[in-house]
């Protein structure tokens, strides 16, 4: 059932922060009697067993738990086991007057050697307590100092234990801060992981967008390349047509020159025809003149007798 609250030296609030108190009985967890559930909660085995047997659930978060799932903290969490062992407690007979303070791991060994009888209460000087019982509780050193009762043979041990308790309490406070720091670090790691994932997603998205842009650019380049090829083909066709037009113009010019030459030849032929006509007319005139001359000469050469007839 754990260690009673009055035996615990540490501040209870601090113990609750670091979860070293059984949530059921409220006592400090005992290292040898503490079990851990799969969900990470600590209980006294005697406290949690009836609840799990009846409900098959964790008393803290009501998650499904079976008795076979419970693990001794010594096996499941050695760090908590050592922390519990270092917890400062008083002797089980502190109510009887024992002032021993030490680590919980040493309490059993002290109890087996504790010189304070069980069931005795602190004797107040001047009371009617039996002197023989009082004398049995006084050690030789206490008698030498003239004390009425002595429950510690060395006064410094108690002071050292108190200092040790304060130191251990500070250590526990530091450990609690370390736990918080660990949680904060874990949160920061998770946030850093999320940031990294977001950065990776952004980079992937950026790469995807860049890839899409590159694809669009390549597509545009290909389209422009096709247009350039078409333009080049069109220009080539136009050049060919221009060459053909030039050749046709040359042919037209040549035909024009030939036509002019033909016109000149036609005019020359016309002139020649007129000249030939004139020559023929002149030749006809000459023929007529020759015929008339022949006729005249033939008439003049006739005999004179022929004239009368």
From TrEMBL:
Gene3D superfamilies registered for this protein in UniProt: Zinc/RING finger domain, C3HC4 (zinc finger)
Q: Which UniProt keywords apply?
A: Coiled coil, Metal-binding, Zinc, Zinc-finger
Q: Which residues form a coiled coil?
A: 174-292
Residue ranges occupied by any RING-type domain in the UniProt entry? 22-61
One Pfam entry name: zf-RING_2
The protein's GO terms of the molecular function aspect are:
zinc ion binding
The record's section on PANTHER family has: AT-RICH INTERACTIVE DOMAIN-CONTAINING PROTEIN 1A-LIKE
Annotated protein name in UniProt: RING-type domain-containing protein
Q: What species is given as this protein's source?
A: Chara braunii
Taxon lineage: Eukaryota, Viridiplantae, Streptophyta, Charophyceae, Charales
């Amino acid at each position: 059932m754990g260690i009673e609250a009055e035996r615990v030296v540490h501040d209870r609030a601090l113990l609750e922060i670091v979860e070293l108190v059984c949530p059921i009985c409220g006592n400090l967890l005992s290292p040898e009697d503490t079990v851990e559930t799969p969900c990470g909660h600590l209980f006294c085995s005697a406290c949690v067993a009836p609840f799990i047997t009846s409900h098959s659930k964790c008393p803290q978060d009501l998650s499904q738990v079976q008795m076979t799932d419970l693990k001794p903290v010594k096996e499941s969490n050695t760090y908590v086991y050592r922390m519990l062992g270092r917890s400062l407690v008083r002797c089980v007979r502190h109510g009887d007057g024992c002032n021993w303070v030490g680590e919980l791991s040493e309490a059993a060994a002290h109890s087996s050697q504790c010189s304070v009888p069980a069931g005795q209460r602190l004797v107040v000087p001047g009371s009617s307590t039996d002197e023989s019982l009082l004398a049995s509780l006084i050690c030789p050193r206490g008698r030498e100092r003239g004390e009425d009762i002595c429950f510690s043979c060395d006064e410094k041990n108690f002071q050292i234990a108190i200092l040790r308790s304060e130191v251990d309490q500070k250590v526990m406070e530091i450990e609690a801060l370390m736990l918080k720091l660990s949680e904060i670090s874990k949160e920061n790691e998770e946030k850093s992981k999320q940031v990294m994932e977001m950065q990776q997603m952004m980079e992937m998205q950026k790469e995807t967008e860049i890839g899409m842009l590159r694809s669009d650019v390549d597509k545009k380049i290909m389209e422009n390349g096709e247009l350039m090829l078409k333009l080049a083909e069109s220009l080539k066709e136009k050049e060919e047509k221009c060459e053909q037009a030039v050749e046709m113009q040359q042919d037209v010019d040549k035909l024009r020159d030939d036509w002019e030459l033909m016109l000149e030849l036609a005019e020359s032929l016309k002139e020649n025809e007129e000249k030939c006509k004139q020559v023929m007319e002149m030749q006809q005139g000459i023929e007529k003149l020759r015929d008339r001359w022949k006729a005249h000469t033939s008439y003049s050469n006739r005999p004179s007798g022929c004239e009368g007839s």
